[in-house]
Amino acid sequence: MRTVSFITLGCKVNQYETEAMEEKFVQSGYKVQGPDDLSDIYVINTCTVTNLSDRKSRQMIRKCRRNNEGAIVVVVGCLAQTAPQDVEEMEEVDIIIGTTGKMDVVDAVEEFDGSKKARVESLKEVEFEEMKVSKIEDRTRANIKIQDGCNQFCSYCIIPYARGRIRSRDINNIREEALRIREQGYKEIVLTGIHVASYGKDLGDIALIDVIEEVATIEGIERIRLSSIEESALTNEFLERGRTTGKLTDHFHISLQSGSDTVLKRMNRKYNTREYKDTVERVRKFFPDAGITTDIIVGFPEETEEEFQESFNFCKEVNFSKIHIFPYSMRKGTPATKMKQVDSRVKKERAKRLSLLEEELRYAFMDSFVGKDLEVLFEREVDGVSDGLSSNYIRVEKEAINISNEIMKVSIKNRINDKLRGI
Ligand code: SF4
Fold first, then answer.
1. What is the pLDDT of residues 37-58, one digit of tens each?
2. Rounded CA separation 158/352 (Å)
3. Which range of residues forms the domain containing residue 378?
4. 188 with 140: CB under 8 angstroms?
5. What's 16's domain CATH number?
6. What's the 413 CA to ligand 1 centre distance in angstroms?
7. Which segments in the chain show pLDDT lower than 70?
8. Same domain, yes or no, for 24 and 112?
């Protein structure tokens, strides 16, 4: 039996696509092994979101070749798509596939005759590539990819070039996959994509909320989570219909990137802080306990101390339950690289200041649930203590065994560092 190892870099969409490729190999009679095992084939699903991700992707390619000089090394994904020639020049690489055609990976391996092959398509006319994932190992949450591509062209982001224009998955195929996932006993589904909020824009008369409602009709699926969402999608109608399903989790990851209007403009983001704040208030009207999480870039080119302070104050005002902080990292090929860069020490110092605020806000949010009840989907158990996530994305633990994959009400007693504890 031929063996294959996978190495996945980057986002949830890449993880999903790796799962789909693994399944293809298994169906074709291959054995999937761990990433460090000695295998006949290595598939590296690359990421290119920052220069650092490029570097890591290349390191992994070299490492796989070192693992087995005689293996077939396949490089797929975003780095292969945006820099096919560079990847082709790497002597460690045998087969190159971009962000489309990942489902042809087994054919590419079986047709390999020893001479380097590149299969990188132009993304101009591509359609949503249907993939099937029906077996997910070791987790209580299953991702379903519903969308690909992005039309936003934020000034720091390479993704529209790596993933192409937006394209949405057929709702019937989403339903079928959700049914398969339910059959395996999963209770929570995460709807994921590159820019989930744009779901349906290429299809016409359908939108993300229709997908949520459709999946919500499936008995046994108890929770539907969105991997992230854009502020403009969270209209009164969306929130009302989402709440009515009774299954949409009250956790919204709404990427802000900066709380300064002038920085947002330079980033080519399509909203301002007033609109963002209005959205958050709207969300809290429909979901009073909502966990609102975000991403913030600090030290974006030309960011002044005043702009950083505006961003800092805005984060405080919005009262996020968690912030992912990214010191700006240059991405070759994007307009932001041509702007005046902020000194790396300044970036570090700003990231540190914001992370102190982040911890304060996160703990205050968690503490506000002490004395209340939270519904928790339990995931794992260590030494008689089980833990899992609440609907609004707080990690909660309680003393109990054999409750993995159960949703239970927990009465919260206190907080221990990054977890709430209850009975
Ligand atoms: S919305 Fe902006 S940051 Fe997100 S993938 Fe699209 S271009 Fe990149």
1. 999 999 999 999 988 899 999 9
2. 26
3. 373-422
4. yes
5. 3.40.50.12160
6. 40
7. 135-138
8. yes
